[in-house]
Design goal:
The protein is mostly helical. It has 12 helices and 2 strands; from the N terminus they run αααββααααααααα. It folds into 2 domains: 68 residues, Orthogonal Bundle (Arc Repressor Mutant, subunit A); 169 residues, GntR ligand-binding domain-like (Four Helix Bundle (Hemerythrin (Met), subunit A), Up-down Bundle). A two-stranded antiparallel ribbon has the order 1-2.
Length: 250
């Protein structure tokens, strides 16, 4: 990983910035030590120090005295905490988020199947297996985290930087949404079984390189979730009258 002696610090900064943009160095990740980075890039430690200063000036990293250098955690925070709480706890927003997921996850599933490489598909399979292993554990929070990690691997397989960063930025909100759904469905084994069937169909379509089939599998999955939530929430006429969105698209 040698770089040219011309404007060494700029070249190193560009390489590190590229890793941050592509998610190889995610928000909150700790960079290697100056000594290790200097060895990796074949440059001097002052050049590394100058490169890190450039990243710091751009707001991409911050240095902690005696603790090292970290990618800024707020790079993936599109919502303030009060807004997150508002969106997470509003019944209407819960359905809005399902509609948003309908669009976002459909797109990443399509491009993952279209562009994914064998190594991407292996990570998608591994993430899917982790979800499957937790399905019967009864821990909605752990399962939700695994489900969102699965979709994050799908996003990575799409090889679209914008989609990856958008998904990373919404990770906490998506986990909350999935967890809430699982808690509602926890006593309905027929619904949980169907969710597993849908996820399996989605994973299979992606790793088989079938873009349109992957998108449709995801659409059916989320439409089924909304239909099931509405059915269980029949007493809430206001919501029933205002959120039949995904079903109308089928």
């Amino acid at each position: 990983m040698k770089v040219s002696a011309k404007k060494v610090s700029e070249l190193v900064a560009e390489q590190l910035e590229k890793q941050i943009i592509e998610g190889q160095l995610p928000a909150g990740a700790k960079l290697a030590s100056e000594r290790d980075l200097a060895a990796d890039y074949g440059v001097s430690r002052p050049s590394i120090r100058d490169a890190i200063k450039k990243l710091e000036a751009k707001g991409l990293v911050n240095r902690k005295q005696g603790g090292g250098t970290f990618v800024c955690a707020n790079l993936v925070d599109p919502f303030s905490e009060p807004l997150f709480e508002l969106l997470a706890n509003s019944p209407e927003s819960h359905y809005d988020l399902l509609e948003f997921r309908f669009a976002l996850e459909g797109v990443i599933s399509y491009y993952a199947a279209l562009r994914g490489q064998p190594s991407d598909f292996e990570r998608v399979r591994n993430a899917f297996d982790k979800v499957s292993a937790l399905d019967n554990a009864g821990d909605a929070k752990q399962t939700a985290s695994a489900v969102v990690d699965f979709y994050l691997e799908v996003a990575n397989a799409s090889h679209n930087i914008m989609l990856v960063h958008l998904f990373r930025g919404l990770k906490d909100l998506l986990e909350h949404n999935v967890k809430e759904n699982l808690e509602v469905f926890k006593n309905y084994q027929d619904i949980l079984r169907q969710l597993r069937v849908h996820r399996t169909e989605l994973m299979t379509a992606i790793v088989n390189g079938e873009p349109e089939k992957a998108r449709q599998a995801n659409r059916q999955h989320l439409a089924f979730i909304e239909k099931s939530l509405l059915k269980l929430d029949q007493g809430n006429n206001r919501l029933q009258g205002s959120v039949r969105r995904l079903l109308d698209n089928q």
